[in-house]
Amino acid sequence: MKIKNAEFVISAVGPDQYPDDALPEIALAGRSNVGKSSLINRMINRKNLARTSSTPGKTQHLNYYRINEQLYFVDFPGYGYAKVSKTLRQVWGKMIEQYILERESLRLIMLIVDLRHPPSKDDILMYDWLKHYDMPVMVVATKADKIPRSRHAKHVKIIKQELGMTPEDKFIMFSSEAGIGREELWGYISEVAELDKEEDLVTPPVESDSNEV
């Protein structure tokens, strides 16, 4: 899919603010500082549309990004950040739960984890919860460029075992800096969102951000 246009639409705090154009939505969930914003920027070949930050937990809403007038990326608040109050984490949890269970436009939840480290307790809880409700979920392991290729298989095995993934569960390694996994991820998104499969998935590379959040 050639990226013709991409734009930030809204930071929504509830259903009354969600877009009503019924475009398919691809949600991104994961802990703070795992690389969700950088993944979005790499996927759309833009350096700063999804703002990265050195302050984990900064995203407190559902951030909507419209791509080619065909679909949305929906960036969830990052979880697992200790300095965020318990009350605020509960509010986030209710907002996300309502969105996941009730949003008809939702086509896929990407659970973003760090390839370098075993999944956190929050990662495992999120994955178990999504599988319990039979939600369409795939695991995307970011920062694949940060470890040698010879160790990729070992780290992938650890992540899959810790999450309890089965062979049919979808998993992709990704790097926002090196572009690893970008074409494969767009291919799967195009499939689940029922986008035009005749369009070219390859777009020119762009200078990547140095920091992933």
Descriptive account of the structure:
This protein is of the alpha/beta class. The chain has helices at residues 36-44, 86-102, 121-132, 152-163, 182-192; strands at residues 6-12, 25-30, 62-67, 71-75, 106-114, 137-142, 170-173. Residues 198-213 have low confidence and may be disordered. Keywords: Cell cycle, Cell division, GTP-binding, Magnesium, Metal-binding, Nucleotide-binding, Septation. Residues 22-195 form the EngB-type G domain. Necessary for normal cell division and for the maintenance of normal septation.
Question: Could you write a compact summary of the structure shown?
Answer:
It comes from Paenibacillus turicensis. The protein is built from 5 helices and 7 strands.
Main β sheet profile: 7 strands, mixed
Q: Bin the helical content.
A: 25-40%
Shape: globular
Give the integer mean of the pLDDT values.
Answer: 86
Looking at how many chains there are and whether they match, the oligomeric state comes to single chain
Strand element count: 7
Discrete helix count: 5
* Rg from alpha-carbon coordinates: 16 Å
> What would you call the structural class?
alpha/beta
Q: How much of the sequence is in beta strands? A: 15-25%
Low-confidence stretches at least 5 residues in length (pLDDT < 50)?
198-213
* H-E string: EEHEEHEHEHEH
Cα distance spanning the termini: 25 Å
